[in-house]
Each structure stands twice: as structure tokens, then as C-alpha cells.
Amino acid sequence: MIKDQPIQQFLDELASKSATPGGGSAAAVMGAMGAALVGMVCHLTVGKKNYEAVEAEMAGVLARADALRAQSMDMIRADVEAFDRVMAAYALPRDTEDDKAARGRAIQEALKAATDVPLACARLCVDIIELSDIAAQKGNRNLISDAGVAVMAAHAALKSAALNVYVNAKGVKDEAFARDRVDRLEALLKEGEAKAIAVFETVKAHL
Asked: Residue limits of the Cyclodeaminase/cyclohydrolase domain (predicted)?
């Protein structure tokens, strides 16, 4: 599985002629890195002197960050599988009218799945941004810059996932489906971007 590969192998494959892994997988990794950095801040806050008052809360943030990191990594395979399904649908025969109809249906179903995967990734990214805020506000002050990097990684992942939602939704002929997914995405973008900017400014002010 891609998520079990050494990072150098993943980067080599990302840079190769192969269409997968691609931008969607990269977005998932960026989100996972953000969650991992939140986890680091939590690990170095829990049990530390002067942070007793937030220890229970930060332990909870750590558990959530670990779960989000695992979910983000699972998105790597989901992204590859969704893209491969789209490519397989486009490769279906179109010799007869029945073939063409079946191919068209397969393409549309595959595009819907390829829209939903990065949308789910975007949701995870907003959750990671929210945890980054807590890490920046209440975590170990010596690690506030790491909380800032966490939020920037999650924000980059959010914007990257958004591009994949847009490109796939554009090909979906079911207008209600496409509009619904884009609306959901744009709500996430609005929420995530405002929070990410605020966290960045909080971190910068304390450096």
C-alpha cells in the first residue's frame, strides 16, 4: 500500500510518469502531516509543568489528531482507487449504442466517486485546522511555530483537495449532485480559510 511506502519511494512515484499517485494523494499527505504536527505539540504539552490545566483537553486533541492522521492516510488509497476507476470507465468499449450507454453511466458514477473522495479529504482538513488552533492557543509555547506549520499544511491540503472536487464535479452531468458537492466544498473553504488565517496570525504574533 502507498501509505506504507518509504517517503522517498512515494515522492519518486509522485514525480514519475504514472498518473497515480497524484495531486489528490499529495493533498492527503499534507493533511496527515498537519495532524501529525498537532500530535507532536500535544505529546510535548501533556505531562509538562505549567500545562496541568490543559492536560486533559490536550490529551483529547491528541486522540483526535491521531485519528485524523490515520483517516488522511487512508485517503491516499481512496484517491488512487477513485482515479483508476475513472480511467477504467473511459477505457470501456464504445462499439455499439449499448456499449456507449454503459460506458457513459460508468464514467458518471466514477466521476461522482472521484468528487466525493477529495470532498471527504477537505472535511478532514478543516477538522485538522480546528485542532491546530487549539494547539496554537493552549499547547506548549515552545512549539507554537509547529502548530503554525500544522495549520499551513492542513490549509494547503484543503485548497488542494478543493481543486480535485472542482475538476471532477465539472464532468458530472447530474447538476443537482455537482451543485450540492460544490456548495459543500465552498462552505468548508470559507470555514477553513478564515480559521487558518486566524491561527497563522496568532502564531506569528507569539514568535
From this structure: 7-185
For residue 192, give its domain range.
19-205
Q: pTM, whole model, 2 decimals?
A: 0.94
Contact, 21 vs 76, CB < 8 A? yes
Please state, in angstroms and rounded to a whole number, the distance separating the CA atoms of residues 27 and 25. Answer: 5
| pLDDT tens readout for residues 158-197 | 999 999 999 999 999 999 999 999 999 999 999 999 999 9
Q: Within 13 Å, how many C-alpha atoms sit on residue 196's CB side?
A: 23
Q: What is the CATH number of the domain that holds 183?
A: 1.20.120.680
Q: How far is CA 202 from CA 20, 33, 57, 87, in A?
A: 37, 20, 20, 44
